[in-house]
Amino acid sequence: MFQVPESEIAARLRMFQALLSTSGVDAAVVRQNTDLYYFTGTVQDAHLIVPASGKPIFLVRRDVDRAESLSPIRPVVPLQSLSDLPPVVEAACKGFVPRRLGMELDVLPANLLFMYREKLFPDQEIVDVSLLIRRIRTIKSKWELEMMRLAGIISKAIADAVPQVLREGISEVELSAELQMVAHRAGHLGLGRCRTFNMEVVFGHLLSGPEAATPSYFDSPTGGEGFSPAFAQGASERRIRPGELVSVDTMACWHGYLNDQTRDYSLGAPPARLQEAYRLSALIHQRFRQTAKPGAVTGELHDAVWQWVREAGWDEWFMGTGEQRAPFVAHGLGLEVDEFPLIARGQTLVLQEGMTFAFEPKFILPGEGIAGLENTYVVRHDGLESLNPASEELRIL
Amino acid sequence: MFQVPESEIAARLRMFQALLSTSGVDAAVVRQNTDLYYFTGTVQDAHLIVPASGKPIFLVRRDVDRAESLSPIRPVVPLQSLSDLPPVVEAACKGFVPRRLGMELDVLPANLLFMYREKLFPDQEIVDVSLLIRRIRTIKSKWELEMMRLAGIISKAIADAVPQVLREGISEVELSAELQMVAHRAGHLGLGRCRTFNMEVVFGHLLSGPEAATPSYFDSPTGGEGFSPAFAQGASERRIRPGELVSVDTMACWHGYLNDQTRDYSLGAPPARLQEAYRLSALIHQRFRQTAKPGAVTGELHDAVWQWVREAGWDEWFMGTGEQRAPFVAHGLGLEVDEFPLIARGQTLVLQEGMTFAFEPKFILPGEGIAGLENTYVVRHDGLESLNPASEELRIL
């Protein structure tokens, strides 16, 4: 089976330990699925104990054998009961009693934190190390970029399948189902992991016609009616007709690594204004590829993109309408949909090589529809490189 | 669009307010997607303020218009900034300053709780009301049972499609993808919401042949290799051959309501022992339908099922092998995969009419494979009623 290389895991742990040291945290207890996968190479029912210095211990309740076969970390120690945790943490700290423990307080539920604090670590202070972890995860290694490029090949398979599957009268939900099957066949894992509380991604937003401009609660430029009030966003039962623009925004997952892509299609010529909007989106991409370089400040990049849109006279419809605007033009992604950097107003994070994000300058025209191109990019020394080999043309079928 | 009836919402809120009153909680602030859907009829980016007595207020950041069209709750109040929350809570409490506020501390991340506690409600005590909410959600209304029955019709569509799709050489992942498409076409929403931290469900477990007995970290009798260490469970790239047992365990979702089902298949005759195990699983179902009545204690039901299995001489392989056993024989489900009741050792919850759970007596035979039937049941006055109309026969194709 596929494995995360040992050198990857070792480098990640080295960075984490360095940050724990400088932050005065004696040891971290990593518990969340995505972070476990990042630091161990597998998701198991486990705690990863990372001391600020010394050897990490992978404490696994279940499944111990599979943890050993899928992760390069040694030792893998079986956990029978949670009361085993404090002595193992102490052992990882080479016998000294740790005072400050780090956990992922951005995702750990409050009741679980209380349990760790009161029952297991009454003499320790538990502090949040989620920002340290997220900071490390922000810069992708060469291997990780390769994973995201392979996810981009799934995205291409999806984009290439649309002309075969899109036909008059097909519903958004059906088209989405067919494309999910294409994605699964191309290796899509079926996950779109999110870090933010309450955030849920189900494959993406496949939206068509004027109703595509329907806003939703989801923090994104596009919303959509959805199929149900239980998940009031994304594809609906609406049937696609000729002359409508169809926006295919999909989240592909290759062994946990994500690739977010939007391509637009139509059966026959789409409305001229949407065609123009798509062209503008593509032009903004071209310009942004040169502008978003290491050293650029994310908040300033956001404002620059808005400035280009204003100059083109399209700001009324950019990233939403009225008060329903997405506050960002790009969101970081990798193992989760909502990583750093967020390219949004007021953000001060500075771009560095190896950062990845989905850039989605989109136009929402009430009563007409939506249009816009989205690629997953990596920051290189001279600008952005797309991880999406799919054609960027608006496909008129 | 589909809507949750106003009478449902009203009844749920009445029960919640009664429990808040008797628990001495002045008001609850409901935030989690599933609970919002349950109490308002829609998932939006919102807080639902439920005072112990008086009118609830649906405080919506986004999308206000859609909240108004999808939810019967009035008033819907737009939230501009989180600092609007405390005055609205006070208004809902008819102007008196609440002292004890309830939140869902089993799912709310620790950092978010700190924010509510320190920035917004420094003078209030925030207590956990998740058990109150989960208790109400345990008893399904007639309407909810109808939703779960409709989800069962999606499960039937999946089961009925297997004979058309299963062929020699198809991989588990491909078969799973084809069945997901069938499910989507039948109205499956593509969600399998979980309450437990780190729990993730992707459609279900489609497992075949001897490797089906591979255990995983997932808290369930079956595991499977999976396709990736990023999600080391479920369908793999293994190709299905004649004479193997194929276990199709799927999670269908109709407007948020779940139906969990397992049916077994084979191309040609499967191994005799697995056939026998499937037959025994079906017999256990028959017996359990009569035994699991209102008044039965869940822990005792669990032990009774184990007793039947011991009498049949199959306990060595029941619900796992060695130390890898699922501690339950059934898990509650409804809007989430992990609701009450849990029919597990030591549980003291007493069955009541209207409770629903997935009963999955399964046999795991290392080196041979897995077998077992699973239905979603509702507790009626005289025993269990299945919400799964799909044929329960082992299908030899």
Structural description of this entry:
2 copies of one chain form a homodimer. The two termini of chain A are 40 Å apart. The model of chain A has no long low-confidence stretch (mean pLDDT 97). Chain A has 2 domains: 132 residues, 3-Layer(aba) Sandwich (Creatine Amidinohydrolase, Chain A, domain 1), CATH 3.40.350.10; 258 residues, Creatinase/methionine aminopeptidase superfamily (Creatine Amidinohydrolase, Alpha-Beta Complex). The first copy, chain A, is of the alpha+beta class and 397 residues long. In chain A, strand 10 and strand 11 form a beta hairpin. In chain A, the strands form 5 sheets. Chain A has a 6-stranded mixed β-sheet with strand order 4-3-2-1-5-6, sandwiched between helices. Chains A, B: InterPro entries: Creatin/AminoP/Spt16_N, Creatinase/aminopeptidase-like, Creatinase_N, Pept_M24, Peptidase_M24B. Chains A, B: It holds the Pfam family Peptidase_M24. Chains A, B: It comes from Syntrophobacter fumaroxidans (strain DSM 10017 / MPOB). Chains A, B: This is Peptidase M24.
